[in-house]
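Work Package 4 report. The design task specified in the project plan requires that, given a folded chain encoded as C-alpha cells, an amino acid be chosen for each position. We show below one input record used in the internal validation round.
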C-alpha cells in the first residue's frame, strides 16, 4: 500500500485516537496546532505550528506539505478549517457550507425549521443587539449559548429578564463571531444519536441515554450509555429527522453526532444540536466500536483518502452490545482519602479509566464546565442491564472524601 500523508487539524485529546489510527495504518501523520502540551504532537511525524483558525496560513502550510487527506474529530471548532483545506486543495471532504449547516447553531436551527424538524423556538442575537422579553415571544426560562462553540462553554439557563444580560455576555465571550442563540427551555430526557453520512445518506450507529450532573445553571453530562432505553417510536422519529437533514445538506462523508430531548409524558421531541464530527469523551473513538463492532474511525479515514465504500455492507457487520462512559466530580475543598480506584482498574469491563491526577491533599473547585469533570471511566458489557450493574459497581467501589472549608466531610458527586 502507498503511504498517505494525513493532516489532522488540532492535536488535543479529541484527535489523539484518530491520530493513532493513522499511524497504525502505516500512514504519515502531520498535525497543525499551536505549541503546547498537546498529545498528538508526541506521535506526529511532522508538526505545523500554526493557529488552526487561521485558515489561510494553514492552507498554505498544508499545500507545502503535499497532503493527501485532511481530517479531525470530536471538536466542532476544527471542522470549518478541515472543510476549507479540503475544498481549496481539491481533497475528499465536505464543503464549507455543509459544515456550517451543522456546526453553526443558528444555521442548523433555521434548516430544521425549513425541514419541519422540531427544534426549540430560537432567535439569533449579535453583540450590541437589544434583546428583551417582548422581542422573543417565549416564556422564561430560556437557554442562552454561543452560536459557534462546544462542550457547554458559554451556556446558561436564564430564568428572568435580569439574568439575560450576563448570560449573553458569557455566551459572546465563547463565540468567535460574537453571536449567541437564545431559545426556549424544553423539559425532557436527552438522547444521543450517533451516525455516519455517506453521499448524503444517513446511517445510524446507535442511540445512547445521557444523564447530567444536578447543577443549578450549567449543563454537564455525567454519563452516556449505549444502547438507549428510549421507546422505539421516539428513535424512529429521530432517524427520520437525521435522514432529512443529511439529504438536505448532503455532506460527502462524516461522522455525525446529534443530541435530542424527548418528553415521555407529552411525546414531544426537540433537537438540541448536531455536528459533523464524532461525539467527544471517546464516543466515536471507543464507545461506538465497543457498542456496534464498527470502527467508524477506519471508515472516516478511508473516505478521506477517496476510497469508494459499500456502507450497506459495512453496516451489516454490526454486532450490538453495550458501552458507555461515567464521569464524576468532587465538592469544593481538599481531598482527605481515596480508595477503590485500583480495584476498578482491574475490572475486565473497564476499558479505560482516566483517574490520574486525583491525589491526597489536592484542592478541588466547583464544576463550571465539562473540562472539570473527573474521569471518564469507559465501560463495556454484553447488554444494557449488565452495563447498568457495572455503573453501580463503580459508584459503590470508588470512595473519595473531601473536607470542606468548614471541616465537614463530603463524598463523590456522581449525578
Amino acid at each position: 500500500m502507498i503511504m498517505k500523508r494525513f493532516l489532522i487539524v488540532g492535536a488535543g485529546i479529541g484527535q489523539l485516537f484518530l491520530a493513532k489510527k493513522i499511524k497504525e495504518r502505516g500512514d504519515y501523520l502531520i498535525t497543525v496546532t499551536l505549541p503546547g502540551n498537546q498529545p498528538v504532537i508526541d506521535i506526529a511525524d511532522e508538526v505545523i505550528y500554526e493557529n488552526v483558525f487561521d485558515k489561510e496560513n494553514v492552507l498554505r502550510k498544508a499545500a507545502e506539505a503535499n497532503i493527501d487527506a485532511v481530517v479531525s474529530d470530536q471538536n466542532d471548532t476544527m471542522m470549518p478549517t478541515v472543510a476549507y483545506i479540503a475544498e481549496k486543495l481539491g481533497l475528499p471532504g465536505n464543503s464549507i457550507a455543509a459544515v456550517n449547516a451543522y456546526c453553526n447553531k443558528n444555521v442548523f436551527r433555521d434548516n430544521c425549521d425549513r425541514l419541519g424538524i422540531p427544534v426549540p423556538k430560537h432567535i439569533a442575537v449579535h453583540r450590541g443587539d437589544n434583546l428583551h422579553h417582548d422581542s422573543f415571544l417565549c416564556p422564561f426560562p430560556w437557554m442562552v449559548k454561543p452560536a459557534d462553540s462546544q462542550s457547554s462553554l458559554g451556556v446558561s439557563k436564564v430564568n428572568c429578564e435580569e439574568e439575560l444580560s450576563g448570560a449573553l455576555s458569557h455566551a459572546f465571550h465563547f463565540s468567535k463571531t460574537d453571536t449567541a442563540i437564545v431559545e426556549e427551555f424544553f423539559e425532557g430526557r436527552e438522547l444521543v444519536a450517533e451516525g455516519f453520512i455517506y453521499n448524503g445518506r444517513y446511517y445510524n450507529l446507535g442511540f445512547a441515554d445521557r444523564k447530567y450532573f444536578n447543577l443549578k445553571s450549567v449543563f454537564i453530562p455525567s454519563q452516556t450509555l449505549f444502547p438507549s432505553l428510549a421507546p422505539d417510536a421516539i428513535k424512529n422519529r429521530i432517524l427520520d429527522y437525521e435522514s432529512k437533514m443529511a439529504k438536505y445538506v448532503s455532506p460527502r462523508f462524516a461522522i455525525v453526532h446529534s443530541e435530542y430531548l424527548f418528553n415521555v409524558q407529552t411525546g414531544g421531541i426537540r433537537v438540541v444540536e448536531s455536528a459533523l464530527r464524532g461525539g467527544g469523551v471517546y464516543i466515536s473513538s471507543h464507545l461506538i466500536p465497543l457498542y456496534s463492532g464498527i470502527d467508524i474511525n477506519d471508515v472516516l479515514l478511508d473516505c478521506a483518502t477517496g476510497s469508494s465504500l459499500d456502507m450497506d455492507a459495512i453496516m451489516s457487520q454490526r454486532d450490538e452490545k453495550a458501552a458507555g462512559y461515567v464521569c464524576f466530580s468532587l465538592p469544593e475543598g481538599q481531598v482527605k482519602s481515596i480508595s477503590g480506584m485500583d480495584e476498578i482498574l482491574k475490572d475486565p469491563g473497564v476499558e479505560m479509566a482516566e483517574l490520574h491526577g486525583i491525589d491526597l491533599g489536592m484542592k478541588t473547585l466547583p464544576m463550571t464546565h465539562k473540562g472539570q469533570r473527573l474521569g471518564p471511566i469507559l465501560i463495556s458489557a454484553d447488554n444494557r442491564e449488565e452495563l447498568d450493574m457495572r455503573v453501580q459497581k463503580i459508584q459503590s467501589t470508588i470512595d473519595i472524601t473531601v473536607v470542606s472549608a468548614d471541616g465537614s466531610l463530603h463524598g463523590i458527586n456522581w449525578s
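The two ends are 49 Å apart (CA to CA). Validation will be extended to a larger panel in the next phase.
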